């Protein structure tokens, strides 16, 4: 049903003129379109050339007001010189009110459908006794908050059940979902609020190794308050339905054990509230490369490998070291001469910048605590990673016999994922060392089991 078009007819203000139009939205594909028909005259048989419009106000036949923001003309056609049709693609749609293009909001509210386990805020439970009867309980758990310098991210649940209605319907539905509210201490533009929303959702997607499913979005502003009735003294902030022209992401089934970390792990970590969003902005290209694995699950294995290699190289340049002179000081101050000689070899000495192979060694060595020692100590695994990357990108025939293929390539992808996840979590103040050890040991078990068969 979600892939069907939702259609609404109404009146829309285009360049101070009232026009009849049709608003169409497709939730699955994330497309918002407005079609406006204009009657043509003999003086202008082709009509006026339409222009992009920052804001369009409308009122659909049900009486609801709508605000359309960032409206771009994508087509303009005429029919028998009688009327012209203009199609606008809309970036943002707000239901319920007309807002000026400069109006600012202070919070965005997201209703999710796959984060209850991650949040550990599930309130519903069922108890069974020996008489084959059951007792369904629900209690709201206290909301959890991430307090940051300019923002507060609030996690709470919403619960609805037909079991508590009277009479109970034959088909009783019970729902519980996690609500994420991102509040700014000051009012900000919709575009800035959406940027913050995307950063938060990307970080959560990384934490669960999956897409975050959003079923509803709402905007709220302290500057827009209404009274429940004309005699009331108290005013209330109203939540306005908010739709973005972006494709809906679908989550796939997984176990809680697949997560990189839970919400409670982050809350109990040493995260820096001041640098949280600064780090997420720096991480954005890294997370985009990483999250392609969840957003496009059918991409070829070669692209997965190349994305992870690029993500590691980008992470090293942004968070660890990006100047050759600083890199030499770094490795000499951290590692024994044996590894310094391997990293600072003749090729690296003669290179203008830090080589990919040097970055790989540096990230595998990490905190120099032996976590990934099997993949850098007395092994050519880093060289194989470099050769495979160069072969895929530059088709270096000379390295064809020393690249990773088949099961070895799949194994390398797993190690690269573990390595990248470990370093990203370290930057964000989250300790997943024990989880990484468990993942590495499990991979070894799978390989040994496959060899026995």
Notes on the structure:
The protein is globular and about 80 Å long. The chain has 3 domains: 5-95, Thrombin, subunit H (Beta Barrel); 105-257, no CATH class; 300-452, no CATH class. It is built from 12 helices and 16 strands. The protein has a 6-stranded antiparallel β-barrel with strand order 1-2-3-6-5-4. The chain has a two-stranded antiparallel sheet with strand order 8-9. Strands 14-15 form a two-stranded antiparallel sheet. The protein is an alpha+beta fold. Helix 2 (190-208) crosses helix 4 and helix 11 (406-427) packs antiparallel against helix 12 (433-452). The longest helix has 22 residues, at 406-427.
Give helix % range.
Answer: 25-40%
Q: Helix-strand pattern, N to C?
A: EEEEEEEHEEEEEHEEEEHHHHHHHHHH
Uncertain ranges? none
Task: State the helix count.
Answer: 12
Biggest sheet layout? 6 strands, antiparallel, barrel
Number of domains: 3
Strand order of the largest sheet: 1-2-3-6-5-4
Topology:
Blueprint: E1 5-14, E2 17-26, E3 31-39, E4 53-60, E5 65-79, E6 83-95, E7 105-112, H1 116-119, E8 124-128, E9 134-138, E10 144-147, E11 151-161, E12 174-188, H2 190-208, E13 214-220, E14 225-227, E15 235-237, E16 240-244, H3 263-267, H4 276-295, H5 301-320, H6 324-334, H7 337-343, H8 346-350, H9 356-365, H10 381-394, H11 406-427, H12 433-452
Antiparallel strand pairs: 1-2, 1-4, 2-3, 3-6, 4-5, 5-6, 6-16, 7-12, 7-13, 8-9, 10-11, 11-12, 13-16, 14-15
Summarize the structure.
The chain has 453 residues and is an alpha+beta fold.
What are the main properties of this structure?
29% strand; two-stranded antiparallel ribbon; alpha+beta; Thrombin, subunit H; six-stranded antiparallel beta barrel; globular
């Amino acid at each position: 049903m979600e892939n069907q078009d939702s259609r609404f007819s109404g009146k829309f203000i285009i360049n101070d003129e009232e026009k009849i139009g049709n608003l169409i939205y497709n939730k699955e594909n994330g497309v918002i379109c407005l079609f406006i028909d204009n009657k043509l005259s003999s003086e202008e048989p082709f009509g006026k050339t339409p222009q992009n419009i920052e804001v369009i106000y409308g009122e659909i036949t049900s009486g609801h007001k709508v605000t359309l923001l960032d409206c771009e003309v994508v087509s303009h056609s005429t029919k028998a010189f009688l009327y012209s049709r203009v199609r606008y693609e809309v970036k943002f749609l707000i239901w319920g009110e007309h807002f000026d293009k400069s109006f600012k909001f202070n919070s965005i509210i997201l209703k999710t459908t796959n984060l209850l386990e991650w949040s550990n805020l599930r309130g519903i439970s069922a108890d069974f006794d020996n008489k084959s009867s059951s007792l369904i309980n629900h209690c709201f758990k206290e909301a959890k908050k991430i307090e940051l310098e300019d923002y507060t991210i609030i996690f709470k649940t919403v619960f609805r059940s037909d079991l508590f209605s009277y009479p109970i319907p034959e088909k009783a539905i019970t729902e519980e979902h996690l609500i994420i509210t991102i509040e700014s201490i000051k009012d900000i533009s919709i575009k800035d609020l959406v940027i913050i929303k995307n950063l938060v959702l990307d970080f959560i997607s990384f934490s669960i190794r999956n897409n975050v499913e959003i079923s509803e979005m709402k905007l709220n502003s302290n500057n827009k308050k209404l009274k429940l009735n004309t005699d009331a003294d108290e005013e209330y902030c109203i939540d306005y339905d908010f739709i973005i022209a972006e494709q809906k992401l679908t989550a796939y089934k997984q176990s809680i054990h697949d997560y990189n970390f839970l919400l409670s792990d982050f809350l109990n970590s040493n995260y820096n509230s001041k640098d949280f969003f600064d780090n997420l902005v720096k991480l954005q290209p890294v997370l985009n490369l990483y999250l392609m694995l969840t957003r496009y699950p059918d991409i070829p294995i070669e692209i997965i490998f190349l994305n992870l290699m690029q993500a590691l190289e980008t992470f090293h340049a942004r968070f660890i070291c990006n100047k050759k002179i600083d890199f030499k000081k770094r490795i000499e101050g951290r590692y024994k001469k044996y590894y310094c000689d391997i990293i600072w070899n003749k090729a690296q000495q003669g290179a203008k910048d830090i080589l990919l192979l040097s970055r790989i060694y540096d990230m595998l060595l990490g905190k120099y605590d032996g976590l990934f020692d099997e993949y850098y100590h007395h092994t050519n695994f880093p060289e194989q990673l470099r050769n495979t990357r160069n072969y895929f990108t530059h088709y270096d025939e000379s390295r064809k016999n020393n690249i990773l293929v088949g099961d070895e390539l799949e194994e390398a992808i797993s190690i690269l994922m573990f390595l990248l996840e470990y370093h990203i979590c370290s930057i964000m103040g989250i300790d997943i060392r024990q989880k990484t050890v468990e993942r590495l040991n499990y991979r070894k078990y799978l390989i040994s089991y496959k060899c026995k068969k």
